[in-house]
Fold each of these.
Amino acid sequence: MAKVEAGMESMLEMYIFETNTLLEQLDEILLRTEDANVFSTEDINEIFRIMHTIKGSSAMMGFENLQQLAHKGEDMFFVIREKPEIAKDAHFVYELIFEVSDLYKAEIEYIQTSSDDEFTPTDFSKTFKKLMDATERLKAMEGGEAPAQIAPEAASAPTAPATGTQSGTMTVRVFFEDGCKMENLRAFLLLTKIKEEADVIFCEPHDVESNADSARDIVENGFFVTFRGFDGNNDAVLKTIEGAVNVQSYEIIDEAAVAPAPPAEKAEAPAEAVQQQPVQSEAAPAPAPAKAASAPAKTAESNAVTKAQEDIKKANGGQKQSLISVNLAKLDTLHDIVGEIITTESMVIANPDLDGLELESFSKAARQLRKLTDELQDTVMSIRMVPLAGVFQKMGRIVRDMKIKLNKDAELVLEGENTEVDKSIVDNLNDPLMHLVRNCMDHGIESDVQQRIAADKPEKATVKLSARHSAGEVIITVSDDGAGIDCNKVLAKAAKNGLLTKPESEYTEKEIQNMILLPGFSTNDVVTEYSGRGVGMDVVKSNIEQCGGTLSVESEQGKGTRFIIRIPLTLAIVEGMKLRVGPTIFTVPISSIKESLMVANNQLLNDTKQGEMIMIRGVCYPILRLHEKFKIETEVTNLEEGILLLVDVGGKNVCLFADRLIGEQPVVVKPFPKYLSQYNIKGEGLSGCTVMGDGTISLIIDVNNLISTS
Amino acid sequence: MAENLNDRLKELLDTQKAMEKKKKEASDAELTKVLTFYIGEQVYGIEIPYVIEIIEVPPITGVPGVPSYIKGIINVRSKIVPVVDIRIRFGKEEIAYTDRTCIIIVSTGDVSVGLIVDSVADVISVTEKHVSRTPDVTEVNSNKFIKSILEMNDGIKLVLDVSKLIDEHASEEIR
């Protein structure tokens, strides 16, 4: 069957995006409340809002199973909302909602990946059953004190008791525009909106979101809804109704006459005049019990508070307006264009035709242009920057789940989650981080609490995720305070797997620790659900390398392990120094250059393997001849004729030998063409290429790789 | 190896000729257009839909760590395109580039490659009666880049299988 109705495909992407965002929010709230072991009214309302929106949009898209699922979840929270205390220590609630959230994510992924023909909605009936059981259980826990209103059905049952007599309620009949289609869903959406402003007591037809036939009813009779505005503010609700999409007209029907009466008879009810009275009269007694309990202060000065709330809502509304979501592809295009502009700018300013001319006003204008393009570039980059918080918070879920499954007590500490990184990098970080966190939980933290106590560590283990900026890089560390890496174990395992390339005694501690990043390495004796299948660390490493980063391990036995991810802040534009080697022009990122120098013969030394070294201010540095490294023919082979560039990466220093320096220029990094991705060019020490002002191509040197391969 | 290829192909051609004659009555409807070019004396062809453009040889930036037939990368209007010397790829001797040397930029969807050829000849219309398919002898290494063989009045033309040329050797090279 087709996934979505014709005409809805364009909405699908939006739906998926929105629902995923909502699910993430849901997870976050649940994690927080589970920690605190109490639901605040705010949290519950937020959960309600999320469930509701998901329900509504799923119904809109025609994903009936998803809609049902949200509906059942909502039912459960309905009970909790009435009496938040009962959810205390009710772990099954969390388990269940997490399960629901996971099912959602799985289903959405399925919707995304499956083709139209093979798509069949997953059957959630088991989960429905569980949710209903849980709802019953909660109700039972609540005991006999529950007022009739609490049962979810009561809200929609036509016999809703007592509502008619309570002041402050209002019934409205809404008509939708002729031929706007799917009236039932529009009614449902309207209902959702009203619920943000008021308690909906009754509506007719009551099964709008699940019963497509109700659309006809609505067309014929209109959609009846009885509600009581929060703090008696029914006017706001009316405004909402008025402002809702596709609403053609509405009329207000007196509440006393209406609530128990069947809809057909409501038709002739009088309008406007009646409405004024109840609104004014209800100030003190009306607010819903739950609301009153949570914020007793509000009842006292209901009008003032209502006003304040309205202001807040307006403010929120304004904020929402200032954010737009943009298709990433458009940003990529924008980004490419800015790259082109910068290249073109260099083409103009450094145009060979201008050589030797005194052009005062041109230089001035050129400087101005450079300034503006710099700003433009910064702005475009900043658009693409998103905080890491989203990815980090997802890890909370993993720690929580594994804590329970592995029976290890641990907490996740986040640090610097507001650090911003390019969107494309953030997307690529999710999987590696997940792997690393799992690794910390599974392998890092001691499985026996006694071991921790014996080692004088707190019983509760800590997994720490931190992020910070450092010189054009983002450094993300995932650390635990567990047992650390056992070098002997690693070495033995490596020997067994045939990963050793030299005698065991020659390996340094650091080398051994980094062995766990090799393909096919796993020290865990038992394969668990989470890790230890031998895939993992090497995949993590290559994932990170794909987005231009590096991964390293630091560990102290008995104290813990730290995984350090270094990722360039922006992938695209770097300040580069251009060097000429024979016919080839290389670009070295300025950030890795310490200094450039000409040499005198007396500074040069040879080590035992005939490697060349240079003594600068009492320190010896090895020399790497670029023309030898890249097998380029050049006339400049005498070190004294060329130039040396002292580069520094992660504490390693090397002097690169080139023919001469050409100059400094911001360059737009382009990846090598796809066709070449099968060859290990990156391993040769080149990270990409760039088009220079004159149209020729320069190769960008990745100093880190260059040093490690030579 | 180059002679091998041609000998082999001619051999296979002979065996096919009889069969092909029957086909000759087949329709004269145009199947496709083919861009033909020379490598030495032999005429090769590439189906037009694969061809993006033909350019002169610009300065080529060499790239380390790649097979010798990949001459490097060039800048085609701000797009970086790798270039392959067809001569070396087909095991012929390398010759210096002349005025006539061209780069044919071909593309299969997301991968673009420039092919260095001795000179470009013509664009010809191919009808069914010209085509004799290659026999399915995949173990003949050089044969696998040939998609079909055209028998024209002015000689035999070998149509290259661009997607194999671009993709297949990738897996071969990795091995």
Note: Residues 144-166, 255-306, 311-320, 526-534 of chain A have pLDDT under 50 and may be disordered.
Amino acid sequence: MRPSWDFGLGPGRLEALWNESAEVRGESPGQLAWKHVKASRAMRACLLLLALVGLTSLFAPLLPLPSPMALALETEPRPPRLFGSGQAWSAADYWELNPLDEKLLALRAKLFGEWQTPAWMGTDAKGRDMLARIVWGSRTSILVALAATLCSLLVGVSYGATAGYFGGRVDNWMMRVVDVLYSIPFIFLVIFLISVLNEYRSELSRLGVGPMTVFYVVIGLVYWLTMARVVRGQVLALRESEFIQAARAQGASFARILGVHLIPNTLSVVIVYLTLTVPSVMLFEAFLSFLGLGVAPPKVSWGLLAAESIEAINPIHTFWWLVVWPAAAMGSTLLALNVLGDGLRDALDPRHGKSNR
Amino acid sequence: MSTPLLEVRDLAKHFPSRGGQADVQAVDGVSFDLRAGESLGLVGESGCGKSTLARTILGLEAPSRGTVHFDGQSLGELSRKSWKAIRRRMQVVFQDPFASLDPRQSVLSILTEPLVIHGLFKPRERRLRALALLDAVGLGAQHLHRFPHEFSGGQRQRIGIARALALEPELLVCDEPLSALDVSIQAQIVNLFVELRQRFGLAYLFIAHDLAVVRKLCDRVAVMYLGRIVEIAESEDLYAEPGHPYTRALFSAIPVPDPRAPRPRAAGLRGEVADPRERPTGCAFHPRCPRAEEVPEARCRREGPALLPRRMNANGPARTMACHLAPAGQAER
């Protein structure tokens, strides 16, 4: 390298500048965003709620809940009650769990013995505890939402950004693929994929792929399409902007332009779209489970609970607890996600940060 | 004579247009040299291909024809790695200071990004360098952590200039860096360009609308019309007496800051700039040229004049220009 310009500044002046700059506090966009989130009471509350939902669903086997599938011979749902419990708890009353959940369950047996919470949220028509079903059901719903979100983010964003950045023929081909996939009715595609893959269930399980994994993958495969389109449109508009040209003139690599300049600048749209994806994916899971293609009883999900609860609304006798609790769980989670998403969109944009310097 | 820093030969950039129309010939056969440390102005009406020429030289557009040599290396034949090395020596300042900075980057990361891309220095040194750059363009350490939206247009343009300087280029391509700024700010930025050139021995390829600015900044001036250079001369000579009829027309549009000075009539320019899709035959300027009739046998319409050293008339200036009015070859001594 040629001798560096010292910009006419002696070492003394540079030192002075350095000291001066040390006193200037700066924040990265990430820190600014965190400050923004912390400053808003609504966003703190939403974050707390989501953390709570996430933790209870993750550690569901550890909680002293009744088994979500323990049946009682009853003729109709029993309303919530504060005291008294039904039949005794038994570690055998569960479907096949993965090793980690088995360990958590064993730990629960050690911690709480056979004690279990009373039916605080009532029981359903088969005498199963609603609270336990909601907590266990959250696991499926959250996993489905995560699968769709991750696919949207990883596949959709990078696919769309690549197509948009290269433009021309590359863009044409890449987006035609998306169009073709789009033109196949979404529901048929999923039903088709799941039923075909179910045919090979034994082969797949030999490879260690369970039916639920197939379900998550299929949902993920379908949900990246819209994201790819949305991001591609944004990138197409950004691509010609001068700051991208400047980065190219500096010799920035494609990966750098994509990762440092293009994708962060599409973030607001991506976040808005994600907050729309999560509820729709949860409802879609309910629909598929209702058709018998998703979660199979005795396993539960929020969607399944909501679907069951519809039967509970009838003019003769309304078992309100079958409707209210699942709806409240799903509703509050989705609301929190939406508020947080909306807030994050602003928080992640430095232009919205209050300048207090 | 040593190799010029930048050697552009017959450079052309054509854009395909939709619907079966002829291609847009944004740049069509431009040749010029730029010596190290020299400042070349590029003037012409909007749409004459100045910006496309700059972008093609910078490698942001692939040329349709012709070559660009930077310090003797042909840019068209470079490997990716050598291109990157060239990019360090050739940087750009854009027109719109509101679009040329990433709104999500702080000034610090804007100024250190070129260094990161080229793997230069350690983080502490990069920060120091960013501070020095800010100082060089008249901003201070307190601006280091701010974001582009917190700055005015002039300050943003200073940041854009600092970013271009970060890699210690030898050539700075300035694509109308002043036209988006207020007049008072323009003056400051012009002075900054003058000062930077003195301090770092930069060569400029300076594109501008404002002829007064070009006069102050540039050693030589090239006048473009419809994708071609019609005249190129030392700026002193050019401003003293423009040669080509188009240059005359362009220069007659400079306002004279003296109310008593005789008001020169605009040199009779007719019509609009032609559509670059339908380039007039012969000399592209002939439909608008006030003196096209003076050339016998409608030569202007039939035959494009070459850019050669010419003499307008017996005691007129010797110029490199493209005009049939001045017979070629006589100016050579």
Note: DSSP finds 13 helices and no strands in chain A.
